[in-house]
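Predicting holo structure, flavin-adenine dinucleotide bound.
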Amino acid sequence: MDSIEKYDLVIVGLGPAGATLSYFLRKSGLKVLGIDMVSWDQIWGKPCGDAIGAHHFDETGLPEPRGKELKERVDGILIYSPSEEHVVKVEGKGYMIDRRELGRRIISDAEKGDIEVRLRTQALKPYFEGDLLKGVIVKDLDKNRTYVVKADIVVDATGNSGVIRRRLPEDWPVNEKLKPTDSNIAYREIVELENDIDMPNYIRIYINKEVAPGGYWWFFPEGKNVVNVGLGVQGGRGYPLPTKLFKEKLLRRPELLKRVKVLKAGGSTVPTRRPANTLVWHNFIGIGDNAFTVNPVHGGGMGYAFYAAFLASKTILKAFEMGDFSAKGLWELNISYMRTLGAKQASLDIFRMFLQELSNDEIEFGIRNKIMDAEGAYETSTTGDLKANLSLLDKLAVILKGIKRPLLLLKLAKVAEYMKKAKEHYLKYPEDPVALGKWISELNKIYADFKKDVGISF
Ligand SMILES: Cc1cc2nc3c(=O)[nH]c(=O)nc-3n(C[C@H](O)[C@H](O)[C@H](O)COP(=O)(O)OP(=O)(O)OC[C@H]3O[C@@H](n4cnc5c(N)ncnc54)[C@H](O)[C@@H]3O)c2cc1C
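Done. Tokens:
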């Protein structure tokens, strides 16, 4: 080990979570080091659908994408049934972004403030003094030099790799594993087409278990003749790999027949669950994909990462004011996240599992009969409360003979009940780390009861 350097805070990983945290702390007066193992050219280079709702920028005060950062404006989403005969149109403003351009602008702005950035610097593992997390052991990839960065708070924003979190002691509740069935394996290509795309301001989501089992496939225009097209497949269930499905099912689609060239191709894992039970522990904060701050239904994680980073910046400032970097000193982040987006994630996690168990026929039935219309889909996705046409249930007694799927509707009523329960439990997230164990046991029971009652097999 060559040397020891001392900072107030070290942010490991400068993707959407870490970069925005450094941006929110740029005028904090704290001595902050942000590191990432990639070079400037590869910033925010992880494969992505590149779609993000405009509200994520409004909610956090992050400047919206502009110039080269913005590839296309989004006016709404078209959600297709398995047969594609039925479409739900959800209006809502958003952006198709150039991740690299946006990421680089956010990091440059942070650097103009109090943040020091080192790229090509890989975190190897956490650095402990006795039982206390005191920093990170890092490697300068260009000089092949290993050194210690000491800090009062270590932030893990390394996405799926979770290089710090996974190496924390097993008995720290923040060291939580991602179950494969709580993730999607996703693959996408950015393709230039010969032809112009119809309605380029609407991104399209196709639900079809034969193409994307336990996920969906997407067609997101990034301009008049460039499209980000890909699919996600639920992990841990023995489904075919997304690359195979992409080749066999998507490349034969008429919309993709006139390909000029593939501009980018790649895939990665997407967590699709409720947040980690705690985002903080002693001297530690985890945000972004590594703490599962994502939308469980569509897997979008950039906006959730921004929000977690935004709240983390406030908690960090308070912790430095108080000089308390223990789990208790950082607990405010849990309370602020879990009682807002966390609660929504928790209820959408229930809905996600239910959707993953439905057959194509059942999904078709639901969309055809408008069990959930555009407004319902929008409200469910923004609040986490199931806004389905449950009044159908009231009519059930009368039409039971006529209706083909009473079981589905009854299940849906149960799903709504458990979504509410999960959300309410998160709204009662404990005030103090001491009560976390009890809260987790109660939470696990809600999910176990749900799986049993509704018949979730994974
Ligand atoms: C195919 C696909 C499509 C998606 N589509 C969308 C979408 O349309 N909209 C959306 O909102 N989300 C989408 N997502 C999810 C989104 O990409 C993630 O939620 C988001 O990138 C998470 O940000 P993050 O900062 O937590 O992690 P990451 O983006 O993974 O960033 C982590 C950073 O940490 C760095 N790092 C990792 N390990 C180390 C280490 N040891 N030392 C130093 N640095 C390290 C990495 O280099 C990287 O820069 C998609 C994901 C996939 C895979």
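The pocket of flavin-adenine dinucleotide is lined by residues 12-18, 35-38, 46-52, 122-123, 157-159, 161, 163, 186, 188, 230, 267-268, 270, 288-289, 294, 299-303, 305 (CB under 6 Å).
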